[in-house]
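Onboarding guide, step 5: your first structure request.
Type a short instruction followed by the sequence, for example:

Predict the 3D structure of this protein.
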Amino acid sequence: MKTSDFYYELPQELIAQDPLEDRSASRLLVLDKESGKIEHHIFKEIVDYLNPGDCLVINDTKVIPARLLGEKVDTKAKVEVLLLKRKENDVWETLVKPGRKMRPGTKVSFGNGLLTAEVLDVAEEGNRLIQFHYEGIFEEILDQLGQMPLPPYITHQLKERERYNTVYAKHEGSAAAPTAGLHFTPEILAELERKGVDIARVTLHVGLGTFRPVKVEEVTKHHMHSEFYQISAEAAEKINRAKSGGGRVICVGTTSCRTIESAADEQGRLQDCSGWTEIFIYPGYRFKVLDGLITNFHLPESTLIMLVSALAGREQVLAAYEEAVKEKYRFFSFGDAMYIG
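The system replies with structure tokens like these:
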């Protein structure tokens, strides 16, 4: 299975640069994974596709303003630091630009010295381990100095920071948003609950590894970065109840899907747990829990389009993407949605 098998042509102008004013006004392409039939809807009509007894799984991680712009203390050269993973003692694994200027021992200042840092070491993939120094509370300083870490294909400035978080975001720790959830409003969630749909909240802190390009031609040789997840007893119970009662488990986004598929036992049962996952789902994978998926449109040749293809078949997914391009759907993080059921 080749990475190039998951390529499709995407005109640049279809990459959404800004979120819609009304989250639920996005378009919704519905793909029947059995027949390949495609329908076109508006996102708020997603309610019609879930039934009493189904369980909707959402990822309640919260994106932190993880992008810091600073300067080297000695040369005043501009540098950019992206927080990826918190270690101990105020040490973070980070992505830095320009990398060649950020050797171990380099000292950096942010916000005129409100926050300072020193590069300790070079980690895998050229990431840097950086120790931060400050007075007060780190999260408050980050809130003051940091910017939302938007993907590189979004070139517009984000006017409202909360638009890169879901309305149910709760646990801080992500370097990127679980973007399928951006379409949901409190009204849609309330309507689903009134209909008898259980909503299970899980947490997976999204790292940039999810979006890193696949650099190997043979899909199976790609290595996923690890991401931290947590499932509560309450969420596990709701998911198990749907499965045993004949309902379906519908995940909002590839991150929710990867969380429950990582944590489930061979019978597809879940219990409260936490850990790190490097699960890589591509065609040939047998889903243990997931029945349906609400997702966005993903980059060509990405691990995310491979996951979607594992659920609905590569040919059907690429045909749906071709249709979405023809119908001028909006793509990627701030783009339109897809429901595969």
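Each response can be followed by summary notes, for example: The radius of gyration is 20 Å.
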